[in-house]
Every structure is written in C-alpha cells, then in structure tokens.
Amino acid sequence: MSVKLFRNCRIYTPSDKGCPAGGRAQSQIASFPRGALLVKNGLIARVGEEVKILAEITFLTIDQEIDCQSRCLVPGFVDPHTHICFAETRESEFEMRIEGTPYLEILKQGGGILSSVKAIDAATEDELYKNCLKHALTALSFGATTLEIKSGYGLDTQNELKMLRAIDRVSRTTPQDVVATFLGAHAIPPYYKENSDAFIDLIIDEMLPAVNRQNIAKQCDIFCEKGVFTINQGRRLLQAAKKLGMDVKIHADEVHDLGGAGLAVELGAISADHLLAASDENIVKMAKAGVVANLLPATAYSLRKPYARARKMIESDLPVALATDCNPGSSFTESMPFVIGLAILNMDMSPAEALTAATLNAAYAIGMAKSTGSLDKNKQADFLLLDGESPAILAYHAGVSPVVQTNAGQLPALQTHAWRDHVERKAVPLKGGVNGYPKMK
Ligand code: NIG
Ligand code: FE
C-alpha cells in the first residue's frame, strides 16, 4: 500500500452528489484554506482541513509527504470536447475568416472540415498518432488530465477507423485518461453532396458496426447544422448508435437554432455541445432531462460569435460544462485555463461555476465522473496545483497556464504541468520530485 499526504494547500473542489451540478449547486464548491489530501494507492482517501487530517492519521505510516507551499489544489481539468486527432493546421483559412469569410462558407467551398479530411487521407496512422499525442500533451501541460477526442476527419470507414486507432494508441501512451468519440457524421463528403441520407445509411450500415466490433469508441456524435446534417438525420444515426450501447451527443445549435438541443433531450444524450443559438425552450427542456450543456467559448471567440448564454442556462438549473473544442478550424487551443478565463470574463460565470464546469460537469459530459472530476473519496487522485490563491487565478493571470509545473522525470517531451498521483497505473510512469517543491520523501 502506498500512502501519500499532500499538505499545506488551498483546496477547492466541487462535490459529486451523483449527478452533474446545475443551478445553485454549480457554484457550491468546498474550500479548505489550509487543506490536506490523503492518497492511498492512487485513490483519494481523505480531503479536508489539514489540522483535522493530521490528528486523524497519527498512527498511519505515510510513505511520502508533500508540502504544497500554500498553492491552490483543484481537480484535474476534464476537456470533454476535442478534435485533436488531425493531420494539418488550417492557418490560411484562419486568415480568410479574419478577413470576413464565414466559417460555413469555407466549408461550402470544399475547405474547412473537408480540407482536414484530405489531410487525414494522406496521413499514416503513425503520423496521426504522433500529432494527436503532441496536442494531448500540450493539453496536459495546461491541466487537462482527462480528454475526449473525436474522429470525424475520415468520413469513410477506413479513415475513421485509422483515426480511432490513432486515438486509441494515444489513450494508451499518455498519462491522461482518454474517451474516444466516433464522429463519422462531421461533414458531408463531396460524393454524397446531393444525397446526404445515403451517407447516413453508410455510417449506420458500415461504419458504426465496424467501430462497434473493434470496441474503439464509447460515444457517438453528429454535427447538426444548416448545410451539414439535419435533425432527422441526427435522430436516425444516434438511435442506431444507442442500440449498440454507445453514449450519444450532438454538435447542437452552433450557428443556427435547428433544434439540436431538443433532439439531445429526446434521445437522452449525455451532452449537447456548442448551443450558441439554443432556444430558451430547449434550455429548459435540457435542464429537466439532465443533459449537460457542454459550452465551448474558445469557438465563439475564434468565430467572433456571441457566446452561449451560460447565465440563462445556470439560472434554468441546467448543468454547464466547459471544453476547448480544440480543432484546426473553429478553435485552435488546448488551453482549459484560456477557456475558463473566457467563461469567467465573457460569459459571466463565477470562478466557482467555471471550476465545476471544467471538472465535475465535464466529467459527467463524457461519462467519467465515477473516477474523476472532483476530489471525492475513492475517486482517482487526479489533481492540479495552481500558482495562485484560488481558481480565480485562471482568469486573472490571463494567457498563461497557472498550472504549476511538475517534474516529468524521464519524459522531457511531456513537460507536464499536471500533477497526477494515479498516473502510476498507466504505462508511462512520471517520476522524480516537483519543481520548486521539496523532493517527495
Ligand atoms: O466543433 N462544428 C463542427 N466541428 C468542429 C470544427 C471542426 C473543424 O472546423 O475542423 C467544431 O467547431
Ligand atoms: Fe466540435
């Protein structure tokens, strides 16, 4: 048995009550100005006031004691929506966008997602793996200890499976936990332009069963949008995915209010994502149905669109999660601190609400709350130290990562800032002391 004690830290964490935290519960986080965290075999054994914990454990043998020097300790961030498995960036399209060409217009002209599809077709699985791992490790350096990664730049069986295999390799290599999502319905391939129903048939009849046979994705997603897939097509595909036992989610109401949020309610989706244009009516329905609103403010920032109405959602008791949406088109950032900063300063979320959104609710949005997302007993000891007094530092110290750097031991490429105790159970061990902190005893 390994027992570690992290002491002298300011602890902030949401509490897991068995469901995502909406409404007032979203801002209710536990805090211990001088806290301690006891970890047994990589799992959280006790969190609370340092004096109390020290009094309780006088007879316990502690293998390692770490003085956190009054830093802020929070659960590891969960990034529940990314497209980091891609082959090439799209900088020239970014320039077109800032000069005024709309995002969906670039897609209509055969660019956008479709240019990423060409690049994926030309790339080997190994190249994809390396590129995806690079972005995953950048995300880790900004505190994302759990990640969702979507396919969706393949758009045919072979290339979708190639992406999912690359994602699977990343999940086995990186210290992070990774949840893979099949997004075969991300755009309409040119060949199916006039008959997108036939493409949905192909996904249902060929791609989904192949993905299911290989047990290579836990969730299924679709981009419902004007000029992309309709709500009826979304319903057909996601019902088929549910029959195979997959969790379903939707890129919903990103640019236009097509009713994607309503479809998420109808299907019992685990989350509806984007929601920039979601209606009041569907916000209320989502809250009643327990669908997490997965908001992606870095996309609104990059597309220069009005942000999703987080306040309205929270006031409607709808649990809000936050994600980067990291992708080469609409949001090229791996930084959860940046996203949290946007949520606090541009969406009027409080630091406590944003912390819950980026940890507990994000974990629920990808079915990972049993093991992560809060510092509750028996969850993984998956946490970060921030170089600040409270989670407000994430917005206040803008444009940098306040996640304290830790020593990644033999893995210089990792340059990890995340401090994960349970990482030892993964294939790649993190070793050594912590920069700026006393060596673990
Ligand atoms: O979530 N909206 C669709 N999919 C991504 C963008 C993907 C891309 O442009 O490459 C999104 O914004
Ligand atoms: Fe997306």
Beta-strand segment tally: 15
Estimated radius of gyration: 21 Å
The CATH homologous superfamily of the largest domain is named Metal-dependent hydrolases
Strand content: 15-25%
Per the principal axes of the C-alpha atoms, what is the gross shape?
globular
Whole-number mean pLDDT: 91
What is the CATH architecture term of the largest domain? Alpha-Beta Barrel
Count of the domains: 2
Total helical elements: 16
Major sheet? 8 strands, parallel
CATH topology of the largest domain: TIM Barrel
Query: What is the end-to-end distance?
Result: 16 Å
For the largest sheet, list the strands in their spatial order. Answer: 6-7-8-9-10-11-12-13
Give the proportion of residues in helices: 25-40%
CATH C-level of the largest domain: Alpha Beta
Structural class: alpha/beta
